[in-house]
Amino acid sequence: MMAAASTSRRRPRWLSRALETHIALPLFATLPLLAIWVATFHFIETERLAAVAAAHDSVREQLDTYEAQVARNLNGIDQTLKVIKYAVQLNGPTAALQALRTQALLPPGLVFQISIADREGRIVDSNPSTPAQDVSRAPYFTVHANGDTNTVFVSQTASDAIRPDPHLHFTRRIDDDSGRFAGVAIVEVDPGYFTSSYERSRAGELGLLALVGSDGVARVVRIGDTLSWGQTVALDGMKEDAAAPHPLGPDGVERYAGTRRLTGFPLTVAVGLAASEQMAQYEQHYGTYLVGATAASSLLVAVVAMISAWSWQVAKARRRERQAQQTYAAASEASPDAFFLLRAVTGADGSIADFLVEGSNSRAELFTGMANEALRGQLLGDVLPYYRSNGMYEHLVQVVTEQRVIEAEWQATTGPTAGRWLQRQIVPVEGGAVAMVRDITERKLAEDRIRHMAHHDELTGLPNRSLIRDRLEQAVRNAQRNGGHLALAFVDLDGFKLVNDGLGHNAGDELLKVVGSRMQACLRRNDTLGRLGGDEFVILLPDAGESPLALTPVLEKIRQAVTEPVQIGDQAVRVSCSMGVVVYPRDGDDPKTLMMNADAAMYRAKDLGSNNFQFYTREMNASVEEKLVLLEGLRMALDATLTDEVAGDPDAEPPVVESPAAGAPAAGAPAGRFYLLYQPKVDLHTGRVFGVEALIRWRHPEHGIVPPMRFIGLAEESGLIVGLGEWVVRTACRQAQLWRAAGLDPLTVSVNVSARQFEEKRLVERIAGALRDSGLPPSALELEVTESLLMRDMNQAVERMRELKAMGVSLSIDDFGTGYSSLSALKSFPISTLKIDKSFVRDLASSSDDQAIALAVISLGHRLHLRVIAEGVETVEQRDFLRANDCDEMQGYLFSPPVPAERITEMLQAQAQQRRLGSAEPVPG
Question: How confident is the model at residue 361 (pLDDT cuts 50, 70, 90)?
Fold first, then answer.
């Protein structure tokens, strides 16, 4: 009975202990913990299924879009083949394309190469024209020659001797009236034409578009920006929408893919979306869910542990102490810091001699290389012998003796963490201290990156304006202290804007990086090359000699390095540089003065024709000041001219000036105003004055007549050219209408249009306003543009020219042959006249090269159905050569220099008189 009673008493005690919080709570906590993870994996699976469904939807959507785009392109090609076939049947193989070209039924030659092969396989006609070619052995010919097929044949992508670029052949059989094989109609297309609808925003960086033949061979495959063809693509068994991703494409990337066969063509379109990109958001959320679940679980466990610890402490002091240690251990393990619980060890004299490790967390193992169990009970001096040399020992002593917190950072030189940046925080506790050590290497690297970005150019990696200024100030201080010298060079690239505008900003960026790298290779280690911005660089030579001539070799080396061709894509481009050089202290004793003078020297190099370097002289600043004065005078003259126009009668004739000799100032021209002179244009065959070119002049109140070469560039640079150009157009139109109203022979007035004017959005509107206000017919106005202007943005230039052409205004290319332009682009320009530059006319009587150029321009213009005019004709020999070689028109001092409007009136009156008398001699100017 006593035994039974004893058992009865023990059982309630055991049961009550089981119901204590520190035991029961963890058991119950497993339920919410399980719920957290079940819910987490449920959400993960739900999001995965949603991501897969979205990928399938995207594939179907893009497959529909791509199928429609390819089908539209193929139907257009097939329609072209049928039209060619019909034209051959009507006009014969040699005249078919000409008939279609006359009716404007041929597709653009820049995209499609049209050819007709006869029954022997010879190309009898093509557009654009190509050399003779035999295609009798080509698969796209033999398939029609050997079979009675009436469907479109699509060749594999290939290149040939005539067109080295890979292309596709689309062909149809041509039969004669009796139904026998008569040849083949051919359309050749770049394979990239069928993947132009690729959108990175929808397909990603690894998306795939493919056009595959019925033979399983890819006609074109596009992955990102990469095109390929010719590979075998296994489409057998693939459904319109593949259920799971598989390696579609030559790169082996897993993709969600779909295919669809095209009706009426032996082709299949395929679309693929990279599984890695489609599932990227899911993968990110997957990690987020796991982190969240882990954090929630950790929080739950921590709360349970704390409550259990509290319960344990209430139950028994020893148990409370043990639970406190467990809680400390859990907290320290979850921390990214290494914890060391240290107790001070004193020596015989009572001073602190070392510290004993009483506790640590697992992170401490990374810093000491010892397990926690082995670490406890060790002296810190034995575990970390270098802690006395890095300042940690002194800080520990200070914390214990002064009872304050100390923080510090250092870079470890020995031990497991050698080379890494560490941060320590030491907190005093009774009898010792707690040291927390954290690895802050990543933060330090991020700070270094931010610091580098703040002082270096993002594109080239060179020092930026801020760092250049700091180094220049330091170099000046060193030179002042040591009595030394330094050199500073401003570098500006010549022709960069043309490359940047013509080939795009990516090409410009690549050019800047290559040029920067070349200049850097020419310098010493202690020299500095920096980028101010745009195409401007700065070179600092801190140990330069006193003589500027000593700098010539390195400057010439840099100049030659810059002028070397740069390969950008498949095109080689070439730029040069203009450099302005100053030497301290000769050209300035402070950074601001040195930079200002180097800038002035650089502009001097520009003024001298670019591609050279100039050392600073005091006269350069005077030139800059003169330029500023000239600019202010230009603004005042434009304001005064426009004010006079508004205040006067818009229908009145412009101010009359005395007829000047060539190059002499116009005596009657109003001071501080702009005015126009007119140079006649003469028909070389009849000697008749048929037009004039309006030329602007400026009479400065102090400097007299300012040559246009001095102020036109300044007006262009400052933006005043827009207002000035509008005034020229309005004045010239008004004067031309006055001549017409007086009953004189109708003239065409030509006006030069600058680059800034041509790019101005309201150009067409301004031209229309000038014609409307003056009453001049649009056909009587001709605008002259330079070929280099047109090539800056050819698409925009063609669109702007077509608007003007539609208005009725004539267009001509001025200075033809002095810039650069593609002959294929020339035929796209809606122009009526080519103008031979005077540089090719000057030595026309004696230079065979200039004669060849003039003949080439005349021949080219006539073949393009354009009139050709030569400017700068000053001798009878020049005129006779041009007339003998069928040049249409001329202008120049041989007939007349630029003259005032009333002198043109006299010429027209005399010309009318001579016509009445039957004379054919031209009226001299």
Answer: confident
